[in-house]
Prior knowledge:
Elements: E1 2-8, E2 20-24, E3 27-31, E4 45-51, E5 54-59, E6 61-62, E7 76-81, E8 89-94, E9 107-115, E10 120-127, E11 130-131, E12 141-147, E13 150-156, E14 159-161, E15 175-177, E16 181-186, E17 191-196, E18 208-212, E19 215-219, E20 222-223, E21 228-229, E22 233-239, E23 246-252, E24 262-265, E25 270-274, E26 277-279, E27 282-283, E28 287-293, E29 296-302, H1 309-313, E30 318-323, E31 326-332, E32 343-349, E33 364-370, E34 385-388, E35 444-447, E36 453-456, H2 464-472, H3 483-489, H4 516-527
Parallel strand pairs: 1-5, 6-10, 11-17
Antiparallel strand pairs: 1-32, 2-3, 3-4, 4-5, 7-8, 8-9, 9-10, 12-13, 13-16, 14-15, 16-17, 18-19, 18-33, 19-22, 20-21, 22-23, 24-25, 25-28, 26-27, 28-29, 30-31, 31-32, 33-34, 35-36
Amino acid sequence: MSLQMVSTVSNSSLLQPGFSLLNFDGHVFFFGQKGWPKRSCPTGVFLLDIKQNELKMKPVLFSKDSCYLPPLRYPALCMLRSNARADEYQYIIHGGKTPNNDLSDKIYFISLVSKTSKKIMLQCIEKDLGGDVPEARYGHTINVVHSRGKSVSVLFGGRSYAPLAQRTTETWNSVVDCLPSVFLIDFEFGCCTSYILPELQDGLSFHVSIARDDTIYILGGHSLQNNIRSPSLYKLKIDLPLGSPAVTCTILPGGISVSSAIVTQISDTEFVLVGGYHSDNQKRLVCNTIVLEDSKIEIVESVSPEWTPDIKHCRMWFGCDMGKGSVLLGIPGASKQIIPDANYFYILRCKGAEEDKEEELITQICSQTSSEDPGDSTPLEDSEEFCFSAEANSFDADDADTYNEDDEEDESETGYWITCCAGCNIDINTWVPFYSTELNKPAMILCSSGAGHWVHAQCMDLSETMLLRLSEANVKYFCNKHVDLNKGLQTPQKVLCLKKPPMKPLRKKKAMKLSTSTKKSFLRRLFE
């Protein structure tokens, strides 16, 4: 094993714990930045280019028919193929946390649409499910198994917020283990079925799952209820006959008590387990080799790399599998750095360079990583365990420009040409500036409904005065589709009754009494 430090040219603050990596045709994409995307890259997806120990980032485009994808951190992610040996594939993303600390229950499919020397375009589509739909969660895993010529996705574990009835102001962000149910998801028919197995008694999160053919191995994980990292090793076998699926679970010996470990594949049957935590305040610096052969699993300790003093003494670490036996690791930067959120990054290569020419790896891997604050399970932004996916196959990307908010070379088309609503009429081929502030891209505004999504200001019939007022004021905006729903959810304001002073009754004027001489004098003057 070899460990090499890499330097981030710019915008290293975007690479925070909780990110995921996607790989299409040897290009590695970063997903899950901290905070909401900026105008320079509204998709929140970047191409990573690592050459000569330097990491550069370039914004990625979404196709016009793509849906909005929020920057989800700690989601479950895996690669989906039509069959175990198919060349074409796409990625499944489920759950995760938004920058507002909300949990997502949506499922997205991401695929490669086009690739040129200058630009790469992805497509993102949201999928609807029926049946036993999994609740919103994070820190879980999803894998794809193949049996009898059919395939199905398997979702397990994770954490979610406590039920509303059990939440108070002080414990509003408290999280609990999800029920240890196994969900089988058939995307062809859009249905989901949950299974309760007697062998799975406690909920798990930030575990490692490895899928091969019709079998999934679940290793490690953390249980909030018992505050333990279980040493159990579970074997899930999925049989897909013509009728109902059959799901069985077997508890195997030889497990490892670890949470938030990273798995990378070094051959068709061998994997390397890196990192993780023994306990809340103890990192796991030991590496293991996992061998899968003939429906059996073997876990042995392997030679660990020469960890640097910074890695040994840091309190937390995070990372993600980059494929081909390489792992991207990150540790918190020094507090005296110019950029406070910057981190240090390393590439761990778990196999020799001569082995990098092996055929593309086909085994599904899904793993989770962490930087949980000891003794604190509150789901704050940077004090949680982090989920990672080990689906990427390499990091040899073509020459890419460094991501810079001031560089507008590719930003004119980055995510601005999506279909924001049913009546969207913004077309890249026919669009002309509508507002005086527009130059080469349409003005957009963020709708605060749910996880949030971007819409075109012109499609929302916003005047230029109103658009400027919304951009300057610190208020939430709701698009035409969600404004009525938001009004229905708002609590009516209490109307204060104005106290009016009681009106005084009018007093009757007393008639003046005139003497007889005065009356005679008045009549005399009247007739004179």
